[in-house]
Amino acid sequence: MNIEFHYNITYILARKARFDSQDAFILAYSSQYVDDNAFHYYINYPDGGHFISEVSQTMDITKPSPKRQKIYPLFHFIPGDPDSPTARRKDGKTHPFNTTPDSENARYLLQRALASGDLYRMGVALHAYADTWAHQNFLGLKNKFNALPGLVESLIPNIGHADAKHEPDTVNNRWKDDRLVEELEVVDNNDRFIQAAEKIFKTLWQVKNSDQDDPTPLWQELKKQLLTAMDETYLLGADDRARKKAYRKICDDMPDYDENRWRYAAVEKREFEIDLFDKYWAKGSREEFEQSDWYRFQQAVIAHREDALKRLHPLYEAEHFPA
């Protein structure tokens, strides 16, 4: 999924589940920032010492670092149920790292985040959980299992949904996955995404409301609003501006997303420095820096990564990685 779901729709779901605007923003920003957090930063403290940030996204998992190659299965392509009815292929193949929607592994990681009470960690886990719908039937590895029929293998590495480009992530998009059995091969992303939205809304509702509060009527109304907004486009072609305007009609207090907002508030860049180890400095004291949104997000990434590695350890030990 892209920013439309991870930020805009996640914010709406949190607000409608009765999170206040600030908490909803932290959830939604953290969810989207998983995709934008692609660089390690070496941050100096004014009083000595340093902090090295973690990454939750990479543009190239083919580089030799095993840590880099594990980013996709941990944050974007959580391995699910290889025998899921949604994963049936014409060639009959299965793979233990195959992503499937609402999988047991994804639910476990989300529940761990919810139990922590950490909004940043919840946002990270919501990103990974939502992606189990968009990235279903792909592996977060370089593997021929990901290959779509009819494409020249040498031109596109079979990593994630590289063969499908951005087709699986885009709201208001229909495409074909020719690997799947006939009844599954035509994919309507809005159908997939609204399923994810319902699960997330009801999960967040449980966090903020008592068991006696029934969210079903509210969800039915919200579902209509979301489907209408997700179907918005301009006459001359696909353009997310119309949809984002429609999302704001549902929640008019939604802040704009700026991927640099948290980092710029926490980190000072010294332009004159050539050495990367002297270029980035914490703003304020160490204590102030460690209360910043950016630092707390980084800690959430580390916590999610550790939980996911423990959970998926049997798969890695079973010699299915690297594939």
From TrEMBL:
Tell me the superkingdom of the source.
Answer: Bacteria
**InterPro entries in UniProt:** DUF6765
Q: Which Pfam families match?
A: DUF6765
Q: Where is this region: Disordered?
A: 79-102
Q: What is this protein called?
A: Uncharacterized protein
> From which source organism is this entry?
Desulfolithobacter dissulfuricans
